[in-house]
Amino acid sequence: MNFQNHALILAMIEQLNRWGGSSGKTHVQKGLFLLQAVRPRSIPFLYVLYKHGPYSFEVEHELEEMKSYGAITSRPVLDYGFAFAPGLMAKFAHERSRISDFQMRKIEKVCQFISQKSAAELERISTAAWIDRREGIKRKGPNVARLIVLKPHVPPDLAEKAYDQWEFFRRHIRNRRLPS
Predict the structure, then answer these.
(1) pLDDT tens column, 100-135
(2) What is each CA distance from 65 to 22, 61, 69, 85, 161, in whole angstroms?
(3) CA 34, CA 107: separation in Å to the nearest integer?
(4) Which candidate in 97, 109, 111, 174 could, as Cys together with 3 as Cys, close a disulfide (CB 3.0–4.6 Å)?
């Protein structure tokens, strides 16, 4: 078991719950990816561009492992899927590996940014981040065009909004708090 990975995932789940948004798989997956996009060495998971944006099979595996020993629990959410919460063994996972205050502040900012966003919004924003960071397409017009090619179901206005949200997040992640 990689308790460092578990500590990162658990911190993400705890902060998502703290900010009052969804703490389901999509928010955990996309939150970790967005953190990796702005702080590449802070998140050790391998991501691929998948059906609904960046996805890590490693994160999926870690979530299942954490459920197996009780570090996290999941509960059904009406019309959504599942939400995660710290389990009875969360303290055990925290004791095995600590994350720095710096990492915790960044996780908090990511969760503040994504907590009230829908899964569809996160798909678009994280795909815009993927295009910027992984494909090197940083300018708005080409990034939006590529997003539409990769996600033909996304209308141009929502692709532009996703790029703008990614840019807003990228610029403001270094600040103490994201502006409202």
Answers:
(1) 998 999 999 999 999 999 999 999 999 999 999 999
(2) 21, 6, 7, 14, 36
(3) 10
(4) 97
